[in-house]
Amino acid sequence: MNDKSLPDELSGLRASIDNIDAALIHMLAERFRCTKAVGVLKAEYGLAPADPIREKQQVERLRRLAQEASLDPDFAEKFLNFIVKEVIRHHENTAAERSAS
């Protein structure tokens, strides 16, 4: 079955999903641009790459937001943890590069 034989409603929903996916990618790119700047500042000031207190606050905040948005809070937490793990890896690399200079 090709897209031409799909009901218009399904095609419309898929187009919306494609737009949302594109927006998510751009939002993630912007988020990582900001967290990269945070990593540079942390390296400059000798701060730890991870901030467990901030991470805990963010998990609580996003779980609450997810619940308000009728999104599974466990999924939201897993998604955030995935992102935070990548951010910390970037911060560690930034700190290592800075100390090697």
Automatic annotation (TrEMBL):
GO terms for biological process: chorismate metabolic process; salicylic acid biosynthetic process. Keywords: Isomerase. It is an enzyme of class 5 (isomerase). Its EC number is 5.4.99.5. The keyword tRNA-binding does not apply. GO terms for molecular function: chorismate mutase activity. Residues 4-95 form the Chorismate mutase domain. The keyword Isomerase applies. NCBIfam families: CM_mono_cladeE (TIGR01795), PRK09239.1 (NF006691). This is chorismate mutase.
